[in-house]
Amino acid sequence: MAPETEAAHEDIEKRIKAVTKKLKQIEGLKEKSPDQLDEAALAKICFEPQLQAEVAALKAELTQGGSSVDKLGEQLETLKLGSAVPQASDAAQSSKDPHAIERAKALELLPGEYGALIGSDTEKEFKKLQKKLRDIGKLHEKDNLDKTQQEKLSGELIVIKAIQDILSKAEATAKRKLVQEAARGVAKAGYPASSNSAGVASGGVHLNDAVTGGLIAERRAKYLGSGKQWADTFCGAFRVHPPKSHANQNFSKMKTFEYFLWSDIKPQPSLDYLKRTIAYFVDVRTCDFYFETMAGTKLDAT
User: Fold this and answer.
1) Domain locations in the chain?
2) In sequence order, which ranges of 140-188 are alpha helices (DSSP H)?
3) Which residues fall within 8 angstroms of residue 120, CB to CB, at 6 or more apart?
4) 25 pLDDT exceeds 70?
5) 190 with 129: CB under 8 angstroms?
6) Against a cut of 0.85, is the pTM above it?
7) Which of 174, 171, 219, 207 is nearest to 279 (CA)?
8) Helix (H), strand (E) at residue 64
């Protein structure tokens, strides 16, 4: 292996170890009750899926390059992150098995926490679909297929899509649960609560409302109807200004991201915390958007 290649692999392995360390810290935070977590801890938990994906991608890059990452693989298993992204085989690059990568991804172990989120019946269906997909995968190794086997092979993408749908729903449920837990922690920390009984002082559109879409119109009318105005302070209102680039399409996932209103309850969350939280839920970088007041004044997170 060339010296420059070895150096590149060492950098990747160092990054995997660093991210793995962060994931271990997050595991420790998740064992605590919401009222024991501050805003920085909540933000770290929100980034767990992205860190998991980064580790898997880095490991895949190593395996595809021929490096040994057995030790790192053991670390990932202890973190219960599920199966790592498998090494791309020759079959994956061959027209004889065009869906090898998608199939390998769909055959990864279901994260332990997802089982409780999707229910026993759906989990059974998930395992049944995976078994069917494994059987289809074996057909790619055969030279001659009968009519029945050819029909099974032609339905491979349908099975993969069914598995992906279950995973997507489980991920969405997990994300909603995370938001609810974070909201409870925020409420216990003294931030504005999200409820029908909120008074004028806390009647703005709070972060959790914007994420979950709860009571947006009602709170907006109550807040603006009280005579409160937009302001260049943390207890004012901020409009999320989406980018003009291709990242803008991600913001369509959250149509309620118009602006956030906060009461004068102290302490106030920082703009940086708000940006990081929003970036997580719409899957964009924090540099892809910014806040501005109704007057158009740009607010930078520092």
Assistant:
1) 1-87, 88-174, 193-299
2) 147-154, 156-188
3) none
4) yes
5) no
6) no
7) 207
8) helix 48-64
